[in-house]
Specification:
The protein is mostly helical. Helix content is 48%, strand content 8%. It has a 3-stranded mixed β-sheet with strand order 1-2-3, with no helix packed on it.
Length: 117
């Protein structure tokens, strides 16, 4: 069908590989955004987009969403989810202090960034 030289075939193959890598990277990024950001895990309380504050719903958010809180890593996020699974939904934001690893200092840092509804 196409009468291509060996060099042209090599160039075409390299271009095809670059295209496939770019496509895979793009799909990975789209997938990562949908996995990490859970729209029902955030509550938007601001009207002005320039001062928009998103609060993380500690009753619905997954580990990735909880890790968005300053000072909360993977282990603490998993503890929060485990506490929620064992004791049911949080009834107040202050109940976070009952989770092992959430002391008064960390609580003060994150309390304004979380919600329970």
């Amino acid at each position: 069908m196409f009468d291509l030289e060996k060099r042209e075939k090599s160039i075409l193959l390299v271009l095809l590989i670059i295209l496939l890598i770019g496509l895979a990277f793009t799909l990975y990024q789209k997938r990562a955004v949908h996995v990490d950001v859970k729209s029902d895990g955030f509550t938007d309380y601001a009207e002005d987009p320039s001062s928009r504050t998103l609060k993380i719903n500690i009753n619905e958010s997954d580990a990735a969403g909880l890790m968005e809180l300053k000072g909360v890593g993977r282990i603490l996020a998993e503890r929060i989810i485990e506490y929620r699974s064992t004791n049911g939904n949080f009834r107040s934001v202050e109940e976070l202090k009952k989770v092992k690893g959430v002391g008064q200092k960390l609580y003060e840092k994150i309390k304004d960034g979380v919600s329970i509804d």
